[in-house]
Write a structure and sequence with these properties.
45% of the residues lie in helices and 19% in strands. By secondary structure, it is of the alpha/beta class. It folds into two domains: 221 residues, EreA/ChaN-like  fold; 97 residues, no CATH class. It starts with 5 loop residues before the first helix and ends in a 6-residue tail after the last strand.
Amino acid sequence: MTTVTGNTQAVASWLTANAHPLPGTNASQARPALSPLRDVVGDARIVGIGGSVYGSHEQFTLTTAVIQYLIEELGFRTVATEEDWDVALPIDEYVGGGTGDVDALVADSGMPWRTRETRELLEWLRDYNSRATERVRFVGAGVIDTRAEVYDLVSDHVGRVAPERAADLAAHFGPIRPTGPDHVGWFFTQAQDKDALVAHARAALELVESLPRTAGDQTHELAVQHTRQIVGFYEHYTHHVVEDGYRDRFMADNLAWWHEHTGHRIAYWSTTAHSFRADELAIAIPPKGTIRFRPTGRHLRDRFGDGYASLALSYGEGEVVSGWGLPPFQRRVVGTSSVPDGFVDSVLNSVEHESYLVSFRGELPDEVREWRARQGQARVIGSVASPDIPSESYWLTGGTQTDWYDAVIHTRTSTPTRDL
């Protein structure tokens, strides 16, 4: 049981009185109990759903429940993730009723999402779309992968609308279009003049932007957006491979573009390291050290104001999946001890419900407002957690809880996500 001291006892008592218990952590169990989210979300155009860890079964299934609620009850029509833009394109086709093998699509996605929980969400989206009058889209906001298919989409567009420019585009795409399965590996081990590759990508974008089009031509806008992802890949790995905020700004740009392009309200499945709205986060990632950057959520708050809402997911103790970000670059189960006293999560863990939702919207007692207005520290575990390093060594801080989120779903226990 978490120890709660005097200055947080009143907060713990308020949490206990205002928590909405969830009857279970599976999506089908939790989904009917999520009606308090209506007031949390309000008129928000984008809702960040930030888990404190990539590899928690309970956080994945509860995220699915939230996404289902946002779609069925509040009319959200896009699910966005940190997955890369081009990787998500065939997934979007699949959930829309198109071709594709769901297991192959999940296995080909980024390491955090190669799970049965992801497959279950995609299958639910496909089934929902089979009955819906307006289908739900699936989009990736990320920029750390680029695949040949997106180059081909751009080339096809140029060939249709300006065939006389196709050779010019091919001259820029020739040196940068992926030719093997591991383009990132090629970039780091074989690419020579990386700045020249960036220049080719930027020149391709300028070419596509200059093509003839009519006002509101969405095919042109989409081709430009595809090309931006190519530029983003090369800029990221050439100048911003250390987390300096470029990736988060790019993800925010992608989400804002998608909202403007479609008019959709977006459920943004993320992690707290990216969904929080602080001006700057400091994140401890041993043995890499501490990184600092402005998260995607802050960029979205700057753009949309109260039109961006933030929901966090936290847990007390248990097992998670991590480890693919460091040698041997494989998914592995990591045990995490009870969240330490002094962390925000420890106060959330003082509530005796196994899982619950609590909203911080509306009038709050002075003790709760003051607690949320203090700079906090919270657990966050990404891709590099090691069984040999104490779990309390992985944390984030920066800004206040008021900057972080509008509501929290907390579970006392985590179990690992399930591999395909």
